[in-house]
Structures are given as structure tokens and as C-alpha cells.
Amino acid sequence: MIKAPLTILLAGPRGFCAGVERAVQIVERSLDRFGAPVYVRHEIVHNRFVVEALERKGAIFVEELDEVPAGAPVVFSAHGVPKRVPAEAERRHLVYVDATCPLVSKVHREAEHHFARGRRIILIGHDGHPEVIGTMGQLPAGAVLLVETPADVAALALPADEPVAYVTQTTLSIADAQTVVEALQRRFPSIHGPKRDDICYATTNRQRAVKAIAPRADRLWVVGAPNSSNSLRLVEVARQSGCARAALIARADDIDWRFLAGAERLGLTAGASAPEALVEEVVEACRERFEVAIEEVEVTREEVRFNLPRALSVA
Hints:
Blueprint: E1 4-12, H1 18-34, E2 38-41, H2 48-57, E3 59-62, E4 73-76, H3 84-91, E5 95-98, H4 102-116, E6 120-124, H5 130-136, E7 144-147, H6 150-154, E8 164-168, H7 174-187, H8 201-213, E9 219-223, H9 229-240, E10 246-249, E11 265-270, H10 276-289, E12 290-298, H11 310-313
Parallel strand pairs: 1-11, 1-12, 2-3, 2-4, 4-5, 6-7, 6-8, 9-10, 9-11
């Protein structure tokens, strides 16, 4: 049987970012240091493949600390946690390791800085996302207001002369976040913002790479989890950048091959919490059905590395 040709435009960078690599290493090092089981509050990152691999090594994932036995080791996820969580861990004498991404911690420090100067904080982000919950939980109730759209900005019940500042969730669409920032700047001309963009380097780079391949692709797949904000944003960016037929897939087993009917060029990338093994799995599945040619489209190289917490960095 003659296979139809398919060119895969492989986006670079893609997949794991430094914050995700660090978080996974923290769980693995904790297992080495403390022995199994090690408890993890919430998914360490938003990817079931990663979570299940850690479960096989002895990690137990829980929703809240009341599920963790007294004195047991627990890891906080890469998305960050409200301040009440480490306080509760200390009250219960739990050994805890914080795997919050350093770039999320940077946003926390910015919010605290503005609050200390008497400013109301406006957070641009998605309601209910763990990172948003963690950021809002750094300060007293009411100190942080959440907006997602320019309409939310218009609806803010704030006096024009109240000192305000904004921070953002790190995994937003760059373009969407900018429209909200512009709405805030129009309504509050003296608003304080971050010295550097809060949207993380990995989110920015993966969106740039998608923009580079989308106009050339007949179809585009983003490998990632349905609860992964940065993966969902990549699908949106692909559609906005010239590939209307873009979709999210968790892994090769989830592929509906009818999606590729008539396609000659497939764009392929992965969200920051999806390991390269899942991308390779999709490529191999394509090879079984098509005569595949790979074209790497790399917009930049990433060399960012984050140190592990001091408690785990020494063997």
C-alpha cells in the first residue's frame, strides 16, 4: 500500500519548560530523599502522562492537605499555592517542598510589592486556574481583583483615583493579555505594571513558534492536556495565525485520523507541561499511516535552567 506524503512542521521550542522540568525533578528527588510515598498537592503539572509516571514511582496526588498523614512529606505544585497552604503544613508538622515555578513566584513578589505600597492589585488571568488561586492567595481577601477581558476592566467598581497595579497569569495568550493591559491603561492612566512582562519566556517562545508554522500548515496539533492553560492558548494562537484547523490532543491514542483527511502539511507542537516522548509518539503514529518528512522550524533556543530547592540540591 502506497502511503500518502505528509510533511510535519515541528515547532521549536516545544514541550517541557524549565519550570516543569524543575517541578518533576523535585518530586523525584523528594522520593529519593524521603522514600515513598511522597504526597503532592494537586497535579504537579497539568499532564496525566507525567502524573501517572510519578505515581508509579511512589507519588500520591491529593487535592488538599487534610488527605496527607501527619508528618508525611508533601510537594506543592508548580502553579503555586495560597499562603494558607504552607501555613497549614507547618501547623500539622508536615515536611513540605515548594515546587512553585520561579516565574510564578516572581508574580507573587510583584503583587506583594504593590500591596505594600497601598495599591489595589488587578490580576489578568483565568478564573479558577490554580496559578490564579495561588496568586490571589498571597494577599488578604479583596486585595486582588481578577479580570479576563476588556469588558471585565470596564466593570471594575473602583474609584478613578485609587492607586492600582496589575500583574498577569504567566500562561496567557500574549495578544489577549495585551488587549486587557491596554484597557487597564486607558481606564487607569497611572496604573503600575511589571518591569518585565509576567508572561513567561516559555509561553512566549511556544506561541512564537506556532505563529511561524501555522500559516504553512493545513492542520495543526498541540500535544497537551485539556486543563493546561498554555496548551489551550497555543491552539487559539494557531487559529488566529492562519491555521483554522488546529486541535488539542493528549497523546497518539486520542488521534481521530479523519482530522488529517486531505492534509499535506501538519504543524506539531506541545504545551510546556507535555514531555517530548508524547510528541515522538505522535510522529511515530503518523509514520505508520503516511510517508512522513520532518521539517524543524526553530524560532529560538532555550537555555533557561532553575535550581532545585536547597533542601534537595545536595545529595
